[in-house]
Amino acid sequence: MNILYHFLSKYSVDHYGKGEVILQQDSEPSCALIVKKGVVKTYNLTSKGEEKPIGFTIKNELFPLGWIFNKIRKAQYYYEALSDCEVYSVPKDELVAYVHNNPDAMLQILNRCVRDTIHSQMRINALGQSKASDKVLHTIHYLALCFGRDLQKDIVEIPLPLTQQDVANFTGLTRETISVELKKLASREVIFLKNRNYVVLTDKLNHLLDDGYEQHIIRQT
Q1: Same domain? 94 vs 179
Q2: What is the pLDDT of residues 163-175, one digit of tens each?
Q3: Of 40, 65, 97, 127, which alpha carbon lies 20 to 30 A from 34's?
Q4: Residue 67 exposure: Cα atoms within 13 Å on the Cβ side
């Protein structure tokens, strides 16, 4: 249950189409933003204009979190709609005051911060793999655990409309390498595409990992 639901209901909701930038890097936000629907991609751009994804912000999550709690003065990254999105705009001071006076809301945000720390550690582990095949495998593992939803036993859908270029940017590999590695996983029946989302057969994923999928299940609440 989203503790912030009743609080948020009085604020405006902005709509963003897929690919639309919601917040520019180095800009000072006018409001705190909370995802009502859809997925927001967070990324940086190199001096050559290459996209370097940071992560994803999903339903009920706040951004930019550092600015909301006065740890940074401007947005560190770009925030772009990965899918069509609906986003609440809430004056920062009103949100912080509500959280300060509502222990359940504060605990909900703390819980998400802890979960995001675990997610970040998993992503670092994936990026630290020396072989491209292992890097892709552990990235699929990370995406399935952190964002996946169960379709049935041992089958998890990753509800992120990721292109091969998105996966390439996310892993630091070329699109050609990603294409090859994803085809290998598909041929081994570890993954397949369903309505533009990747579906993972977790029992087969287990056989290719050093550690077991079922030992680290993390689900969105």
Answers
A1: no
A2: 999 999 999 999 9
A3: 127
A4: 21
Q: Which range marks the domain in which residue 43 is found?
A: 5-101
Q: Is residue 190 part of a domain?
A: yes
* Band of residue 42 on the pLDDT scale cut at 50, 70, 90: very high
Angle between helices 132-147 and 164-171 (to 10 degrees): 110
Tokens of 13: 């909701």
The total of structural domains in the chain comes to 2
Interatomic CA distance for residues 106 and 118, integer angstroms: 19
Quick one: which of 69, 64, 80, 81 has its CA closest to 28? 64
Which position has the token pair 């509500």? Answer: 98
β-strand pairing of 85-90 with 13-16: antiparallel
2 vs 118, more confident: 118
- Same domain membership, residue 143 and residue 61: no
